[in-house]
Amino acid sequence: MVEAMGQRRRLGVAAWTGGAIAALVLLVGAVSLVWTPHDPAVMDVANKLSGPSWSHPLGTDHFGRDTLSQLMVGARVSIAVSLVAVGLGVGLGVPLGLLAAARAGWIDEAVMRFNDLAFAFPALLTAVLITALLGPGAINAILAIGIFNIPVFARVARGAALALWTRPFIQAARLAGRGRTRISIEHILPNIAGALIVQGTIQFALAVLAEAGLSYLGLGSQPPEVSWGRMLNEAQTFLFLDPRLAILPGLAIVVTVLGLNLLGDGLRDRLDPRLEPRRGGR
User: Fold this and answer.
1) Which of 1, 77, 228, 268 is the most exposed place for a label (fewest CB within 10 A)?
2) CA-only gyration radius of the chain, Å
3) Residue 228 carries which DSSP code?
4) What is the sign, positive or negative, of the torsion defined by CA atoms of 66, 72, 74, 77?
5) Which residues pair with 60 in a beta bridge?
């Protein structure tokens, strides 16, 4: 019991740490909407590749643009793209999962086969296909990441909902004459919200990585839009001349993803009831 309590305490600290990191990134992105130390698009070639100074705390890049301002705007772009992409996955995937669990039969089979088909096309491949049709851009990156998230949330919602349809309180609601759609909305969805929140946090971290990867490959945000992935792409030419240009955006991505993963693990420890027997058994 002492060991279990100790582990819960450690996970609690991890969750608070992850939440603090995620909140800090959100705050930086929000502040960049109204203020940055310099205009991230303004070039000062005379001061290119300069080190940290009072005017430029994190130095400048190869065009003389302020690195701190670019990192702040990059946080905003990553958050916006990831938030919309995950929202797209939740908005379409959760109803599909609830529908499959409620109706079963051929509807359930059709939804699951759609999931299998969607999983056959990773976000990167989907982005390439969308880019070939519509051209590169942040909107197309959102579509690619969002489409990949739809089957993820559909499976989570379906699996969690199926476990509830045999519960006594659901049977009581059916005996009371409530339809499957109403039961799914009023009884199933609130009870699986914890699992969806945890999965949403995890997918948010993966979306940040996916957005950075797509932008690095030139399939995401386009100039003059700033993103951490584009900063990495532009820094690779100067990797040995000034590694700071690659280290800073790479560190921003690592810290953000780490914070979201810590937050997701902590939320899962608190919200997933299936972990309770394991804790008690240790």
Assistant:
1) 1
2) 22
3) H
4) negative
5) 66
Rounded mean pLDDT, 45-61 = 92
User: Counting every residue, how long is the chain?
Assistant: 282
Q: Which long-range contacts (CB under 8 A, 24 or more apart) does 31-39 make?
A: 31/72, 32/69, 32/72, 32/73, 32/75, 32/76, 33/76, 36/66, 36/68, 36/69, 36/72, 36/73, 37/66, 37/68, 37/69, 38/65, 38/66, 38/68, 38/69, 39/66, 39/69
Model pLDDT, residue 35: 94
CATH number at residue 15: 1.10.3720.10
Q: Which two tokens stand for residue 70?
A: 């670019």
List the domain range (segments joined by +) for residue 190: 2-43+53-281
Q: What is the pLDDT of residues 145-167, one digit of tens each?
A: 998 899 999 999 999 999 999 89
pLDDT at position 272, please?
61
Q: Which two tokens stand for residue 206?
A: 């993966």
246 lies in a domain?
Answer: yes
Kindly state whether residue 205 falls inside one of the protein's structural domains.
yes
pTM of full prediction above 0.90: no
Q: What total number of domains does the chain contain?
A: 1
Q: What is the DSSP letter of 187?
A: I
